[in-house]
């Protein structure tokens, strides 16, 4: 990857919002939602809320998202980790369609038109077609999932996503027995994506990712449309993105316009660009170094020179209990 070693982001250690504050906000939000007063969210006046969203432009959510939020299922037992501050999660991004710098997506992604948005479903599947996001999500309840997101560049974040398990959608679309992999494709619209125009031509657009079918239907695999109780900001992959928490972040493809059920392992963007550096599986693994740096440790954002917040990387990003069976018998050093 075109790596810039993280410089600690834009925030200080003291700005980490404790999880309790967030949970407290959710309780308040739920109360408001229950009384059909969601539009009064800006009146939430706790200092924590003010600082969480200060200076962060958040797009207006489509009506269907607000409706779904009324019935969202909030995560019952988070794992006790501090959430990444909203400002860092939305201003320290990788979304190369908008440029190579961490601040480019926040600077430029507002120009991406996300409504209306359709997703092409094709390949080995019984219900192919062009679906609106709204239709894809219609039968499902939004769920909150607080996951660690570990970038291959060795910085992790902890993000509360809102989405649906991909498994439920796959079941409804009914892939045939010939489908062995799922291929995902991002929007490629150079007129709205300056990174595609700026001669950043190392990447062969559109951005493509893929999962083996058993990975795609694993209960942890999420199709997200929101984060931090709000609609997904454009720079984080609006209106819908994948979240695969036990894999390096580049597998979590943003702004998806096509989902294909295929027989062969798809050629993915980073794998095609640098096959010696990025594999198809991209499972988080402290034992398997990137050819240019070690993956043994990670530097959680926010950090600073005096408090770098360095931790040991966990196998499968800490989700080994839930996912290691998927790779039984595989040589993780070879099939990286
Ligand atoms: N999806 C697309 N379409 N384009 C990208 O450049 N970057 C990936 C992934 N999804 C990327 C993408 C990488 S490298 C990471 S680490 C995560 O998005 C970052 O997600 P975040 O910016 O929401 O933290």
UniProtKB/TrEMBL annotation:
Physiological role = Part of the MsrPQ system that repairs oxidized periplasmic proteins containing methionine sulfoxide residues (Met-O), using respiratory chain electrons. Thus protects these proteins from oxidative-stress damage caused by reactive species of oxygen and chlorine generated by the host defense mechanisms. MsrPQ is essential for the maintenance of envelope integrity under bleach stress, rescuing a wide series of structurally unrelated periplasmic proteins from methionine oxidation.
In Pfam terms, one family for this protein is Oxidored_molyb
Per the record, the GO terms for biological process are: protein repair
Cofactor remark: Binds 1 Mo-molybdopterin (Mo-MPT) cofactor per subunit.
Gene symbol?
Answer: msrP
Q: Does the keyword Metal-binding apply?
A: yes
The answer on whether this UniProt entry bears the keyword Translocase reads no
Q: Which PANTHER family match?
A: PROTEIN-METHIONINE-SULFOXIDE REDUCTASE (PTHR43032), PROTEIN-METHIONINE-SULFOXIDE REDUCTASE CATALYTIC SUBUNIT MSRP (PTHR43032:SF3)
Q: Known post-translational modifications?
A: Predicted to be exported by the Tat system. The position of the signal peptide cleavage has not been experimentally proven.
Which NCBIfam families does the annotation name? Answer: PRK05363.1
- What top-level branch of life does the organism fall under? Bacteria
Q: Which Gene3D superfamilies match?
A: Oxidoreductase, molybdopterin-binding domain
Record-annotated Oxidoreductase molybdopterin-binding domain positions: 114-270
Cofactor(s), by name: Mo-molybdopterin
**Keyword annotations:** Metal-binding, Molybdenum, Oxidoreductase, Signal
Residue positions annotated to bind Mo-molybdopterin are 93, 96-97, 151, 186, 236, 241, 252-254
The name of this protein is: Protein-methionine-sulfoxide reductase catalytic subunit MsrP
Quaternary state and interactors: Heterodimer of a catalytic subunit (MsrP) and a heme-binding subunit (MsrQ).
Q: Which reaction does it catalyse?
A: L-methionyl-[protein] + a quinone + H2O = L-methionyl-(S)-S-oxide-[protein] + a quinol; L-methionyl-[protein] + a quinone + H2O = L-methionyl-(R)-S-oxide-[protein] + a quinol
Family membership noted in the UniProt record = Belongs to the MsrP family.
Q: Which GO terms describe its molecular function?
A: metal ion binding; molybdopterin cofactor binding; oxidoreductase activity, acting on a sulfur group of donors, quinone or similar compound as acceptor
